[in-house]
């Protein structure tokens, strides 16, 4: 019975394969892409961000395609380059490892993928939580035309500080392509709670991406809080893709 259930689950996932033939990335913005990078592909994504508290940080991520339905991922939310003394921030945040896989692709022009992830207590003392923070993310996208789509995500993470707490987050975005590799998005997302003891944090952000050739994408985005602690950020970055053949 268990083998039959596994076979059914596997066959259900196969139609949901979402390997992207064109260059896409999980940045910028809060929502990740509904596409996998594909077998034998290694994609490095990173950005430089500046926030209201004048913290300048890098946001590195590496995505590795192993199978048509499985992507391995590792990222750091921030690697602090410069910060005011009063923030007390330095070094690298906890690394986050995860896998990405398709879930559903039965409805025309609609894709759903999932990410299972967990932070590892590996960061600088000013950023680490000192424990593992497992979580899951469900990402969807529905194309209305060849160039325009709505998308969103729902996250659930078990965060650790003085005590454990389930943190929920969600987003919705509108995305448009303008030809010649130019894309844009506008997004609204909420994190609840942003920190233990805090309330909901609502933010709007928008950005543009420019695909250069087949293996490079540049991006620029900015966001501002609309409810909760006043905050803003500006980020610019790149995504670089290469293919590493497995075997001969």
Task: Describe the 3D structure.
The protein is mainly beta. It has one helix at residues 2-13; strands spanning 41-51, 56-58, 61-67, 70-76, 79-82, 95-104, 110-120, 133-143, 148-160, 164-177, 182-192, 201-212, 216-227, 232-243. The chain has one domain: monomeric porin ompg (Porin, Beta Barrel). It has one helix and 14 strands, in the order αββββββββββββββ. It has a twelve-stranded antiparallel β-barrel. A hairpin with a 3-residue loop joins strand 9 and strand 10 (164-177). The longest helix is centred in the N-terminal third of the chain and has 12 residues, at 2-13. The radius of gyration is 18 Å and the shape is globular.
Secondary structure layout:
Blueprint: H1 2-13, E1 41-51, E2 56-58, E3 61-67, E4 70-76, E5 79-82, E6 95-104, E7 110-120, E8 133-143, E9 148-160, E10 164-177, E11 182-192, E12 201-212, E13 216-227, E14 232-243
Antiparallel strand pairs: 1-2, 1-3, 1-14, 2-5, 3-4, 4-6, 6-7, 7-8, 8-9, 9-10, 10-11, 11-12, 12-13, 13-14
CATH class: Mainly Beta
Global structural class:
mainly beta
The helix count comes to 1
Mean pLDDT across the residues is 89
**Shape by Cα distribution:** globular
- Assembly state (oligomeric): single chain
Tags for this entry?
single chain, 248 residues, mainly beta, Porin, 12-stranded antiparallel barrel, 1 helix, 5% helix, globular
In short:
This protein has one helix at residues 2-13, and strands spanning 41-51, 56-58, 61-67, 70-76, 79-82, 95-104, 110-120, 133-143, 148-160, 164-177, 182-192, 201-212, 216-227, 232-243. With 248 residues, it is mostly beta strands.
